[in-house]
Specification:
With 139 residues, this protein is mostly helical. It folds into 2 domains: 1-82, no CATH class; 92-122. Helix content is 79%, strand content 0%. It has helices at residues 2-17, 21-33, 41-58, 60-91, 93-118, 131-135. The chain is elongated, with a radius of gyration of 23 Å.
């Protein structure tokens, strides 16, 4: 898709690409700023190349305006999600408590995996799953 966006922008040219610049820059910006673990480095370099191509194509001023608007929009979305999460914590404390328990459980499991990788002879005690007990109807 990134190659397609680059090809379309070159094909449209300088004047006709300007209205579509924020739409094209949104996925490129998202890929550049993502920090998840399984990120493909080729995608990051490709998005950087296409951004450089767009910068040369439309000029630095128009590019900067479009890029800053995309940045601002992404920051607003991030802030809105954060605010909604905080409101949900107040509105639905049971859901928030479940999310917190899950996060703590994952943190403990990660810590155990890290210890096992550092000291292979050490085996951390794992929480035994009681799947059948959870399925049973208890009154």
């Amino acid at each position: 898709i990134f190659k397609f966006l680059g090809a379309i922008s070159v094909d449209l040219g300088q004047d006709r690409i300007k209205p579509y610049l924020p739409t094209i820059l949104t996925p490129l910006y998202r890929e550049l700023n993502s920090n998840y673990a399984e990120q493909d480095p080729t995608l990051k370099t490709l998005s950087q190349e296409i951004i450089e191509l767009l910068k040369k194509l439309v000029g630095l001023e128009a590019f900067s305006l479009a890029f800053s608007s995309v940045q601002k929009q992404a920051n607003q979305k991030r802030a809105m999600r954060k605010k909604q999460r905080a409101l949900q914590t107040v509105a639905n404390p049971d859901i928030a408590a479940r999310r917190k328990l899950k996060r703590h459980k994952n943190k403990a499991e990660t810590r155990k995996r890290k210890i096992e990788s550092l000291r292979p002879m050490y085996k951390a005690k794992r929480h035994r799953s009681h799947a059948l007990k959870d399925l049973a109807m208890v009154e």
